[in-house]
Design a protein that fits this description.
About 50% of the residues lie in helices and about 0% in strands. It is mainly alpha-helical. It has one domain. The chain starts with a helix and ends in a 19-residue tail after the last helix.
Length: about 90
Protein backbone atom coordinates (compact mmCIF):
# COMPACT_ATOMS: atom_id res chain seq x y z
CA UNK A 1 0.00 0.00 0.00
CA UNK A 2 2.87 2.38 0.73
CA UNK A 3 4.37 1.97 -2.72
CA UNK A 4 0.91 2.49 -4.21
CA UNK A 5 0.52 5.79 -2.37
CA UNK A 6 3.90 6.93 -3.68
CA UNK A 7 3.15 5.72 -7.20
CA UNK A 8 -0.10 7.67 -7.34
CA UNK A 9 1.44 10.86 -5.91
CA UNK A 10 0.68 12.87 -9.03
CA UNK A 11 -2.97 11.73 -9.00
CA UNK A 12 -3.52 13.71 -5.81
CA UNK A 13 -2.71 16.92 -7.69
CA UNK A 14 -5.99 16.47 -9.58
CA UNK A 15 -8.11 16.08 -6.43
CA UNK A 16 -9.85 18.93 -4.58
CA UNK A 17 -7.92 20.08 -1.50
CA UNK A 18 -10.91 21.63 0.27
CA UNK A 19 -11.26 20.60 3.89
CA UNK A 20 -15.00 21.32 3.98
CA UNK A 21 -15.88 17.63 3.80
CA UNK A 22 -13.09 16.37 6.07
CA UNK A 23 -9.47 15.64 5.24
CA UNK A 24 -8.54 15.42 1.59
CA UNK A 25 -7.39 12.12 0.05
CA UNK A 26 -3.87 13.58 -0.01
CA UNK A 27 -3.85 14.33 3.71
CA UNK A 28 -5.30 10.91 4.50
CA UNK A 29 -2.49 9.32 2.50
CA UNK A 30 0.15 11.49 4.15
CA UNK A 31 -1.17 10.44 7.57
CA UNK A 32 -1.06 6.76 6.60
CA UNK A 33 2.49 7.04 5.28
CA UNK A 34 3.76 9.01 8.29
CA UNK A 35 2.37 6.42 10.71
CA UNK A 36 4.37 3.72 8.90
CA UNK A 37 7.65 5.62 9.40
CA UNK A 38 8.02 4.28 12.93
CA UNK A 39 7.80 0.63 11.85
CA UNK A 40 11.32 -0.69 11.08
CA UNK A 41 10.22 -2.97 8.24
CA UNK A 42 8.13 -0.22 6.62
CA UNK A 43 10.20 2.91 7.18
CA UNK A 44 12.09 2.77 3.86
CA UNK A 45 8.99 2.35 1.64
CA UNK A 46 7.17 4.90 3.81
CA UNK A 47 9.97 7.44 3.41
CA UNK A 48 10.00 6.91 -0.36
CA UNK A 49 6.22 7.29 -0.53
CA UNK A 50 6.37 10.46 1.58
CA UNK A 51 9.04 11.90 -0.69
CA UNK A 52 6.92 11.17 -3.77
CA UNK A 53 3.79 12.66 -2.22
CA UNK A 54 5.63 15.78 -1.10
CA UNK A 55 7.46 16.28 -4.40
CA UNK A 56 4.28 16.01 -6.46
CA UNK A 57 2.03 18.04 -4.13
CA UNK A 58 4.18 20.88 -2.81
CA UNK A 59 1.59 23.58 -3.36
CA UNK A 60 -1.22 21.62 -1.70
CA UNK A 61 1.00 20.74 1.26
CA UNK A 62 2.40 24.24 1.82
CA UNK A 63 -0.42 25.24 4.23
CA UNK A 64 0.51 22.21 6.36
CA UNK A 65 4.16 23.15 6.77
CA UNK A 66 3.80 23.31 10.56
CA UNK A 67 2.86 19.62 10.62
CA UNK A 68 6.02 18.76 8.73
CA UNK A 69 8.00 20.71 11.32
CA UNK A 70 6.48 18.54 14.02
CA UNK A 71 7.29 15.45 11.98
CA UNK A 72 10.90 16.58 11.67
CA UNK A 73 11.07 17.08 15.44
CA UNK A 74 9.97 13.48 15.94
CA UNK A 75 12.55 11.99 13.59
CA UNK A 76 14.54 10.71 16.56
CA UNK A 77 11.79 8.10 16.91
CA UNK A 78 12.27 6.87 13.34
CA UNK A 79 14.30 3.65 13.07
CA UNK A 80 17.62 3.97 11.32
CA UNK A 81 18.96 1.09 9.33
CA UNK A 82 22.70 0.89 9.55
CA UNK A 83 24.26 -0.53 6.42
CA UNK A 84 27.54 -2.39 6.73
CA UNK A 85 30.44 -0.17 5.76
CA UNK A 86 32.76 -2.01 3.36
CA UNK A 87 36.36 -2.26 4.40
CA UNK A 88 38.83 -0.40 2.19
CA UNK A 89 40.76 -2.58 -0.22
CA UNK A 90 44.06 -3.84 1.06
CA UNK A 91 47.06 -3.26 -1.22
CA UNK A 92 49.27 -6.28 -1.55
Amino acid sequence: MLTTAGSYASWFTTQPQSATNGPSPLMNSIQYVVEALSEPSLCLPAANALKGLCDANRMALAPHLHAFGALHASLANIPVRVWPIPSPPVDS
